[in-house]
UniProtKB/TrEMBL annotation:
It is a multi-pass membrane protein. Residues 18-194 form the MacB-like periplasmic core domain. The keyword Acyltransferase does not apply. The keyword Cell division does not apply. This is FtsX-like permease family protein. It holds the Pfam family MacB_PCD. Keywords: Cell membrane, Membrane, Transmembrane, Transmembrane helix. It comes from Cryomorpha ignava. One of its GO terms (cellular component) is plasma membrane. The chain crosses the membrane at residues 267-288, 308-338, 358-382. The lineage of its organism: Bacteria, Pseudomonadati, Bacteroidota, Flavobacteriia, Flavobacteriales. It is found in: Cell membrane.
Length: 395
């Protein structure tokens, strides 16, 4: 007796019941897989971009806004700070290294950041073509910017006022692309980098309300030791006109905000998967009732208890595998659509087709859940009274 063939035919003998069970499992697995992929991508992206940055100094305002704008480039800056005051702070013996950032202009929605070459080194950036900027109005474009706008070494472009690209163009100050960065999977990919003097000179025109004293938007700080993290932020916040924000703390707060939504969706996914398991259980129980005579007849024709037992478990296993595979395919197709938006807006890259280790755990858990759901109905086949069932149907 071919148990596998019989189990496969039994699934299609009652298609509506099987489709309902598979649908429940598919939706549960798809949602759980989607949460795993998105959660890991967010975690990796946020941690990667704050690597090597202990503190961010900027204008007074929201600490989270300062972190999002200065590190992740996904929010409006809190304002500008005095370059002189920032450099005075940089001389503090507890500070090992600083990187100054100047915002204010953009190109077609992509931010132009005035900074030093240390900013590229911070994210292990490398050149795909050309060289790093040396003089004002020389620009190096990120890999994503280069692909999106077909910018290459030697091209010229004009910046627009504002970080959203909606302001007027500064046609009197053309930028020249001198280099293109390799893809790094960091914020570098979606930025245009130049010397800070480029930003200052553009905004030094009479039609801008700008102070004669040079200003920067933010300063990234790395401490010599953990002692600096404990003392210096309080000093900056209380004794200067600037604000100090700690990336690790603010990112944790951000994940706490995300955590509520993610936890809710995880509960929903778990409930759907449990309903799928219940559906497997009900399906197997109903199958035993509907096919009691068939199984008794199989037993009378020589089928062993273990073969009948295995047939029921195999049906549940097939349902679990089909639901899991369809769920994973659905989640990864969804990620493929989301990936473009997430990459463009937040610089987040989600692995589309590679299976995450947690997804392997999800696969195992789903299949085991289905087998356990079918275990009780399968055990009842062992205690089946063959003669009683056959006599009942004969009468």
């Amino acid at each position: 007796m071919n148990v596998f063939k019989l189990s496969f035919k039994n699934l299609f003998a009652r298609p509506m019941r099987s489709v309902l069970t598979v649908t429940m499992l598919t939706m549960g697995v798809a949602l759980a897989s989607l949460l795993i992929l998105v959660g890991n991508a967010l975690d990796d992206s946020f941690k990667k971009n704050i690597r090597g940055i202990d503190m961010v100094v900027g204008a007074k305002g929201s600490p989270l806004q300062l972190i999002l704008s200065a590190i992740y480039q996904i929010d409006s800056p809190t304002g500008n700070i005095s370059l002189a005051e920032a450099r005075k702070l940089a001389k503090n013996p507890q500070i090992k290294e600083t990187i100054e950032l100047s915002f204010g202009d953009s190109y077609k929605g992509r931010r132009i950041v005035g900074t030093s070459q240390k900013y590229v080194a911070l994210y292990d950036g490398s050149m795909a073509d050309g060289i790093l900027w040396e003089k004002p109005f020389e620009a190096v474009v990120g890999a994503q910017v280069s692909q999106e706008f077909d910018l290459k070494t030697g091209d010229e472009f004009y910046s627009a006022h504002g970080v959203d690209g909606m302001g007027h163009d500064h046609e009197e100050h053309p930028f020249t692309v001198v280099g293109v960065l390799n893809t790094s999977g960091s914020v570098l990919d979606k930025l245009i980098l130049t010397a800070p003097e480029s930003i200052w000179e553009v905004h030094a025109d009479a039609d801008h309300d700008s102070s004669a004293t040079p200003e920067i938007t933010a300063m990234l700080v790395k401490f010599r030791s953990k002692m600096g993290i404990m003392t210096l932020p309080r000093v900056v916040n209380q004794q200067t006109s600037m604000q100090a924000a700690l990336p690790a703390i603010e990112v944790n707060r951000l994940f706490e905000l995300f955590g509520v939504a993610i936890s809710t969706l995880q509960i929903v996914a778990l409930v759907i998967m449990l309903l799928g398991a219940v559906s497997v259980f009900v399906s197997m129980v109903n199958a035993l009732k509907d096919r009691a005579f068939e199984m008794a007849l199989m037993r009378s024709m020589g089928a062993s208890r273990s073969q009948i037992f295995g047939m029921i478990l195999l049906e549940a296993l097939m349902l679990g595998i089909i639901g899991t595979v369809l769920g994973l395919i659905l989640s990864h197709i969804g990620i493929a659509f989301l990936n473009t938006y997430a990459n463009e807006q937040f610089g987040i890259n989600v692995s589309i087709w590679a299976l995450d280790p947690l997804e392997w755990l999800l696969i195992t858990a789903t299949i085991v859940l289905c087998i356990f759901a079918a275990l009780l109905p399968s055990i009842t086949t062992i205690k089946m009274d063959v003669s009683k069932i056959l006599s009942r149907y004969e009468n």
